[in-house]
From TrEMBL:
GO terms for cellular component: plasma membrane. The keyword Iron-sulfur does not apply. It comes from Kineosporia babensis. The chain crosses the membrane at residues 176-195, 202-223, 229-251, 278-298, 310-331, 361-385, 507-523, 535-554, 574-599, 620-640. This is MMPL family transporter. The lineage of its organism: Bacteria, Bacillati, Actinomycetota, Actinomycetes, Kineosporiales.
Length: 718
């Protein structure tokens, strides 16, 4: 690190010139990246996905979700009297690319009618649109509007896509750029408080370079592999928070060294050698937690792993090169007015540290109890799709669905299951078996495809969107799997099951990979066995608490309606837990590294664990709290997006950062370090040789403040 810093200072104009070019090129790339991102939700090798490919080949449909046109006869008439009109509307809808329509007009099945006989519904099954908007929605609306005018019937449409579209229209959020600017403004307020000088603008400049440079690299990555649309949000807002957090640590150490009498370039080199080393460890830890997503056989998550990995790596590279160059060139001039001094550790945080050390058992107990209380709801966590109730509580699609439910038609029409058989002769047996399954409203065959393969649309009574409601898919599969010609099931329910198999069956491997690599990295960073073990375990408990809070707030709806206008989701989107885990594990570990690296430095200087806690927390407490607030503002801006899944991810990450920076890092970590005493710092010689670091033998613990030397600030460069 010292060599890197020295080289950067010596060639600072070349470094600044390089990043200036990257900034300009990244600005151009940022506008091109969104058009090259993918909406790939495929699950290769899973039954539901492979069956949907069979449907795509046979009919041009995916079978996952349906649109539900609803027709209502004039007052005093029954809808059955208008069967010919319904047939004409269905034929018009079938002209849409890949559309298949089943309903009362074609089947005469009275189960397509409401209890009062005045309304009927059809199922319009089409390919799942790519992206958040259906490009044929306007054409479909025109067909239905024209049909209503020609027939005199009331014609409305509902469906999962319509409910989601209404929700998006009701809560249109800011663009990615606007969200980034909102997060940046919040970060600036915190930075002004921390530095109380024009130096507050330097981390924002570093963040801008890091974000746009990441967009530039991601643009190149899109020509090599698919990159998920989610990555653009992560680059802008997580990149903002990470780059500023890392800059905050290095700049604060630079100011501290200058306050102790070091020259400017000497202070820059020392800051990079010490704080920069912690930044490098943190950046690599975040990158590792994200690249581990490649273990999951889901293209979307794998692309998030590759794309997300670039965010901390490029931020780290910018902070370790551009930031020292800027500080060397103009640091003292922009550090004006110097209202806040860095000669000594924060008296408030040092006092807090002494209090935690004195009452360490109580502190450890309170922190553990707080985490345990937050963890409790996680045992009711459901995975799947957001429930229809939380998608929209107003609008035409919502009102139409409510009318159907009031007239005896359950929400299962939103998520039919499509079974596929090899030929039409196998259909009658499958229909008979399917209709005997509890919870099935009806089973209706499609017309045989040119290849002979035939789909049977099975309509459950209730929507199948999470891992408790998809039991009907298991029951249906058990009833029909042994029948001749059976190919498989497709639809929302089978898709939820596919994700459970593809994602969560592999999740223990992801967890183990991240934990082991992180543990080894931290053993080298802290030269300790116990500190890394504690760090990994505390991170896992902290993550469990975050999922518990997300379950309580979003899934159970305790406050989501009041704050975001979104009712209880009933489940967490199946791709979110792994993504939240990967990002939050790495981001939370940032603060662990910042805090423990400084404690290790102070322990090596004084030999006192209590003194290390006081000085380490006194020096980093304000930084960690400020860094957490900056990331929280970034995630709060991201939560303004209209998509419910992104809201869930943003709030989980934001609350997780605050929980980790307060309860865990400011309470549990110092309490446990105090309890473990000299064993915190032990690294046996054999393990040290393997990891190529200096050993750290057990040594007698010094009492806090034993000598006057221990109370003096460290000498510059020490």
């Amino acid at each position: 690190m010292k060599s890197i810093a020295t080289s950067v200072v010596r060639h600072r104009w070349w470094v600044i010139g390089f990043w200036l070019v990257a900034l300009v090129a990244g600005g151009a790339a940022a506008s091109a990246v969104p058009d090259r991102l993918t909406y790939d939700f495929s699950l290769p090798g899973q039954e539901g996905w492979e069956t949907s490919l069979e449907l795509q080949e046979a009919y041009g449909i995916s079978g996952e979700l349906s649109y539900v046109p609803v027709y209502t006869a004039p007052e005093g008439e029954g809808i059955a009297e208008h069967r010919d009109d319904l047939a004409g509307i269905d034929r018009a809808l079938e002209q849409l690319p890949g559309a298949q329509v089943v309903g009362y007009a074609g089947t005469g099945d009275e189960r397509f009618l409401t209890d009062d006989g005045r309304s009927a519904f059809s199922l319009l099954i089409r390919p799942t649109p790519e992206g958040f908007e259906d490009p044929l929605a306007a054409q479909m609306e025109q067909i239905l509007t024209r049909s209503a005018e020609q027939t005199g019937l009331g014609v409305e449409i509902t469906g999962y896509q319509q409910l989601a579209a209404d929700s998006a229209q009701d809560s249109e959020g800011p663009s990615v750029l606007a969200e980034t600017l909102i997060g940046g403004f919040g970060a600036l307020i915190v930075l002004l408080f921390v530095f109380a000088s024009f130096l507050a603008f330097v981390p924002l400049l570093v963040a801008a370079v890091a974000i746009l440079s990441t967009f530039l690299v991601v643009l190149g990555l899109t020509y090599v592999t698919d990159v998920s649309f989610v990555v653009q949000f992560l680059i802008a807002l997580i990149g903002l928070g990470v780059a500023i957090d890392y800059s905050l640590l290095v700049v604060s150490r630079w100011r501290e060294e200058r306050a102790h009498g070091a020259g400017n370039d000497e202070a820059v080199i020392t800051a990079v050698r010490t704080a920069g080393h912690a930044v490098l460890a943190s950046g690599v830890t975040v990158a590792i937690s994200l690249i581990a997503l490649v273990v999951v056989p889901v293209p979307m998550l794998r692309s998030m792993g590759f794309g997300g990995m670039l965010i901390p790596l490029i931020s780290t590279l910018v902070v370790l090169t551009l930031l020292p160059a800027l500080l060397s060139l103009a640091g003292p001039r922009v550090d004006w007015p110097r209202i806040r001094k860095e000669n000594h550790a924060s008296s408030g945080w040092a006092a807090w540290a002494r209090g935690v050390v004195r009452y360490r058992w109580i502190a450890a107990g309170v922190g553990s109890a707080a985490l345990a209380l937050a963890i409790v709801p996680v045992f009711g966590l459901q995975f799947g799709l957001t429930s229809s109730e939380s998608l929209s509580d107003s609008g035409q699609a919502h009102d139409t669905l409510v009318t159907l439910e009031e007239q005896g038609v359950g929400s299962g029409v939103l998520s039919p299951i499509t079974a596929v058989v090899d030929s039409a002769q196998d259909v009658p047996a499958l229909v008979a078996a399917a209709e005997k399954v509890d919870g099935v409203r009806m089973a209706v065959p499609l017309e045989p495809s040119p290849s002979g393969a035939t789909g049977v649309v099975v309509v459950p009574e209730l929507e199948t969107v999470d891992n408790s409601s998809v039991a009907i898919a298991d029951d249906l599969r058990e009833a029909v799997a042994e029948l001749p010609g059976y190919v498989g099931l497709a639809g929302a329910g089978p898709t939820v099951q596919d994700y459970q198999a593809a994602v969560f069956d592999r999740f223990p491997y992801v967890l183990a990979l991240i934990a082991v690599i992180t543990f080894v990295l931290l053993v080298r960073t802290f030269r300790s066995v116990l500190l890394p073990l504690k760090a990994v375990l505390l991170n896992l408990f902290s993550l469990a608490a975050v999922f518990g809070l997300a379950t309580w707030f979003w899934q159970e709806g305790n406050g989501s309606e009041a704050i975001f206008g979104v009712g209880a989701t009933g489940a967490m989107e199946f791709w979110l837990p792994v993504l939240i885990f990967a990002f939050l594990f790495g981001l939370s570990m940032d603060y662990e590294v910042f805090l423990l690296a400084r404690m290790r430095e102070e322990y090596d200087r004084t030999g006192s664990t209590d003194r290390a806690i006081e000085e380490g927390l006194g020096r980093t407490g304000r930084l960690i709290t400020s860094a957490a607030l900056i990331l929280f503002f970034a995630f709060a801006a991201l939560a303004a997006t209209p998509d419910t899944a992104i809201k869930v991810a943003a709030t989980a990450l934001g609350v997780g950062i605050l929980l980790d920076a307060t309860v865990v890092r400011m309470l549990l970590v110092p309490a446990l370090v105090s309890l473990f005493g000299r064993y915190n710092w032990w690294l046996p010689a054999g393990l040290a040789r393997i990891l190529m670091v200096e050993p750290s033998p057990l040594r007698p613990e010094k009492l806090q403040g034993t000598t006057e030397d221990d109370r003096r600030p460290a000498r510059v460069g020490q």
